[in-house]
Structures are given as C-alpha cells and as structure tokens.
Input
Amino acid sequence: MPMNVNTSAGSILSLATLPTLTGVESEDLTAYAAASWLEIAEITNIGDFGREYNVTTFNPLGDRKTYKLKGSYDDGSFTIEMGRNVDSEGQQMLKEALNSDNAYAVRVVTQGERETFYMPVKVTSAPISIGGVDDVTSSTANLEVDGDVISPDATPVVTP
Output
C-alpha cells in the first residue's frame, strides 16, 4: 500500500502586509490569494501552528469525578528558523514586521503545492545567532497567530 505522506522539503513561507487585505475579513481566501507575497529565504524549519483549546474542569461533590470541557481557544504561535540572508526581501519584511504593531499575512505552501495555509500573525521576536566557527549565522522568529488559520485545500483548517 503506497504511503500518502510527504517530506517538508520544498515548503515555502511568505509574508504580505495586511493593509493589502484592508476592509476584508481575515477569512477571505480571495484577499489572501490576491496579496503580494515575499518569500522568506533560507528557512530551515517551520514550527507547529494550529488551534489549541484550554481545558476547563468541573468537579461535582456528589460523584467526585472530573469532567472536562473545552474552554477558550488560542490559534497559538510558532517559530521559524532560518539562515540569515540580509539580501532577502522576505527577511527584511520580517524585520519590518517585528518593529510594527500591525499584523502581517503569512502563507505557508507545502511541498509540491499540495496544501496552502493562510493566517494573520504578529512577529514578536527575531533574535540573531552568530554561533561558532562551523555554524551558519542564523535567526529565529516567533510568529503569534492573530486570527484563523485557513486553507482553500481543507476548509476550514480549524473548527470551533
């Protein structure tokens, strides 16, 4: 039986300014598709993203059992790792996003364009790592997801 999985090789993460989406709901795939995207070069790892719910517990005295309910949710945050490339327009936009209070749009396209994910994010950190003599000068960036993760390939990607 053939496997229906892929490696992450060839996946791309790009940024666009959300003003491109002004006046449009963040869930509007047409607006995301029409945005002008800049690929962030030299990414070596795209962290985990997606909705997580808080668990609310309830313990009635009568039966001593713990009941669990889904409470509020957070669309989370993720970290990207990359080799530092000062000539990359995408990495320059990432630095601009770090110094802005505005949300930016992210597009993640997996290998072979099998899936595409869109989300608004706020960049909250982007430290540089020089490392040692045999290391590549690198950077990480923390992206806080500030809205729904959506995909034209699997609508909706996350469900309330």
About this structure: The longest strand covers residues 116-125.
